[in-house]
Design brief:
This protein is mainly alpha-helical. Helix content is 45%, strand content 9%. The protein is elongated, with a radius of gyration of 16 Å. The N and C termini lie far apart (44 Å). The model has no long low-confidence stretch (mean pLDDT 75).
């Protein structure tokens, strides 16, 4: 019983934290979440995140 309760609590926290990684929920198809706005600003300045908007996501192809 204790193992089952621990597993359920762990599963709850994992499920709760996954969507919290992206500021606006799930990113658009083909995009990756960038939850740190300062980091995304650096990506924009370096021309890696090419849309020029700090929106919490960047093109997955350009980030690879």
């Amino acid at each position: 019983m204790n193992t089952c309760l621990s597993f359920c609590i762990a599963l709850f926290f994992i499920a709760y934290m996954l969507p919290a990684q992206c500021p606006d929920g799930s990113p658009d198809a083909g995009y990756t979440c960038i939850p740190d706005m300062e980091f995304e600003e650096e990506l924009v300045l370096k021309g890696i995140d090419t849309d020029g908007v700090i929106d919490g996501q960047g093109s997955s192809l350009k980030l690879c």
